[in-house]
Write a structure and sequence with these properties.
single chain, about 400 residues, alpha+beta, OB fold (Dihydrolipoamide Acetyltransferase, E2P), six-stranded antiparallel barrel, four-stranded antiparallel β-sheet, about 20% strand, rod-shaped, disordered N terminus
Length: about 400
């Protein structure tokens, strides 16, 4: 260094001796000489202070999501249509696939027919419940009248007949004949209605019974009238006593039937229960038909290839895998020496190798309360943004 300086001074001297005065050059030479020969260095002095250098911890892991489901059927059967493909975006409630459902539809049709039949039975029971008390009351009153007539005839036979009794007997015959004619017409009408399905067979039987009773009453009135006209014999008295007994038995039977009137309402209640059961069966059949549709339980994307139409499936067999777009996160394993520096709520700068320079933000959402036995590692879950749907489960993530 010093030899270089000497040479430089010599060169300057030669220029001076040449007779040309270069003052700018002289000044420059003086500056150079001063720099070369001066061994001091200028420095700035500041007060010493301590600064905390930020500590960065790297977290790595694979992207996972809680919304990852295998969509399957609810009942065994054959797929007749599949409406999605791999990578397709679906919405919650969207139909993914459909099973064949001829049997389910047939069961639904049968259940609906059972409802109609049960409603018809209920309507008939309600009609019977309205008319049964009236008919039973009329039957009791008619039997009571026959008992009175039979007893009166017996008393007349025992006491002898008078002119007014003969007139009364004739009037009884006329009345009984009128009742018989009315009962006959009513029975004929009931037979036509029963054949047309307008009334029940039970109602027809009641009208038949009324006709039989009216016919018996007419026969009895004629016999009583004839007895009055003739001289009463002992065997005639016995016959009248038998008629009284039979009339009383019929009265007791009609009174017993009257006590069964509440049973008509019981039949109505039973018919209502049958209607309710039939309607429940329809509801179940409708559910079975609806279950033929494979529905997306959430919004997301189809991952992998779904099953093809024609595949026979059973409950538990995945038709398609559906991965949601919400709740994207990754889990990193942190050594115990670093876990004290991590807490929920911390912001994490994340990146995905597959996405290149796309910057993601994340947040620590949870820290495992205990370490694994192997390696003493704690799991840290970090939620990350979706990056417009580009982040997918399985991608590798780096966080700082």
């Amino acid at each position: 260094m010093r030899n270089w300086a000497i040479g430089l001074v010599a060169g300057v001297s030669v220029l001076a001796l040449s007779g040309c005065v270069d003052r700018a050059g002289q000044e420059q030479a003086e500056k150079v000489e001063k720099i070369v020969t001066d061994q001091t260095t200028a420095v700035k002095v500041k007060t010493v202070s301590s600064v905390d250098a930020p500590r960065t911890l790297e977290l790595t892991g694979s992207v996972v999501t809680d919304d990852d489901v295998q969509v399957s059927v609810k009942s065994p059967g054959r797929l007749i249509a599949v409406y999605v493909k791999e990578g397709a975006t679906v919405s919650a409630g969207q139909v993914i696939a459909v099973q064949e459902g001829q049997e389910a539809q047939a069961r639904l049709s049968q259940a609906m027919a059972n409802v109609r039949s049960a409603n018809a039975t209920l309507s008939q029971a309600q009609r019977d419940a309205r008319v049964t008390p009236e008919r039973s009351t009329a039957a009791v009153r008619a039997s009571e009248a026959r008992v009175r007539q039979a007893k009166a005839a017996l008393a007349k036979a025992q006491n002898g007949s008078r002119s007014e009794e003969k007139a009364q007997a004739k009037a009884n015959v006329d009345r009984a004949k009128s009742d018989l004619e009315f009962a006959r017409k009513n029975l004929e009408r009931s037979k036509r209605l029963e054949a047309e399905g307008a009334i029940s067979k039970a109602q027809l039987e009641v009208d038949q019974n009324r006709f039989d009773n009216a016919q018996a009453g007419y026969t009895s009135a004629v016999e009583q009238y004839n007895l009055i006209l003739e001289v009463t014999r002992p065997e005639d008295i016995d016959q009248l006593r038998e008629q009284v007994r039979q009339a009383e038995e019929q009265l007791n039977l009609d009174r017993a039937n009257k006590k069964l009137d509440p049973a008509a309402q019981d039949r109505v209640d039973a018919a209502r229960a049958q209607v309710s059961a039939a309607q429940d069966a329809v509801s179940l059949a409708r559910i079975a038909v609806d279950d033929l549709k494979v529905i997306a339980p959430m919004s997301g994307k189809i991952s992998g290839q779904p099953l093809q139409p024609g595949t026979v499936v059973s409950p538990g067999v995945p038709v398609a895998r559906l991965v949601g777009t919400n709740g994207i996160f990754f889990e990193a394993e942190v050594p115990e020496k670093d876990i004290a520096d991590i807490a929920p709520g911390m912001v994490v700068d994340a990146s995905v190798d597959a996405l290149g320079d796309v910057a993601l933000s994340g947040t620590v959402v949870s820290v495992s309360p205990s370490a694994s036995d192997l390696g003493r590692l704690f799991k840290v879950r970090v939620s990350i943004n979706e990056a417009a749907g580009k982040v997918k489960p399985g991608m590798f993530v780096r966080g700082h």
